[in-house]
Specification:
This protein has one helix spanning about 55-65; strands at about 1-5, 5-10, 20, 25-30, 35-40, 45, 75-85, 95-100, 105-115, 120-125, 135-140, 145, 150-155. By secondary structure, the protein is mainly beta. It is globular.
């Protein structure tokens, strides 16, 4: 999975957008019930911003994992568990479920762009504030992280 975090504010041009890899640590798919359960180890999220110097990437990663944002020491797992999958064709499907992030669980709908017997891909938009996370602000708020982050995913199913 890839998380895209954007910046905004009066001096947003001085800030950076971020690309974060979020490897899936475990997951399951029940084809009969058409349900999905996916877990991500929050400590294994990796900032991959190609334009940032390594030290700045490390700073972003530390801020993201720290108590101001994900607080991975207290909330080590990010989990999505679906309740209902609505498959309306290869390019129009959605999966409704609950996302647990930062110790809070809320409904989320995944838009599925492709699905077949072995894999699916798609996206979702998550609002940080819905999960008790205050987007980071610097320079008196003239540069801040957008509340909405976009998550893209491509998942290949392995036989159980």
């Amino acid at each position: 999975m890839t998380v895209h975090v954007s910046k905004h504010g009066m001096f947003a041009f001085l800030g950076d957008d971020h690309v974060i890899e979020a490897p899936i640590s475990s997951g399951s798919y029940d084809s009969d019930a058409q349900t999905v359960d996916i877990a991500v180890d929050a400590a294994k999220l990796r900032v991959v911003d190609p334009k940032l110097a390594p030290q700045k990437r490390d700073d972003v990663a530390n801020n993201m994992a720290g108590p101001q944002v994900l607080d991975v020491a207290r909330f080590p797992t990010i989990r999505f568990a679906s309740k209902q999958a609505v498959f309306a064709g290869a390019n129009r499907s959605k999966i409704e479920g609950e996302l647990t992030l930062h110790g809070e669980t809320h409904p989320v709908t995944l838009q599925v762009a492709k699905i077949d017997e072995e894999h699916f891909s798609g996206s979702a938009t998550i609002r940080q504030t819905a999960f008790g996370i205050t987007p980071i602000r610097v320079a008196g708020g003239t540069i801040s992280v957008e509340d909405a982050v976009n998550v893209d995913f491509e998942i290949v199913l392995a036989p159980s």
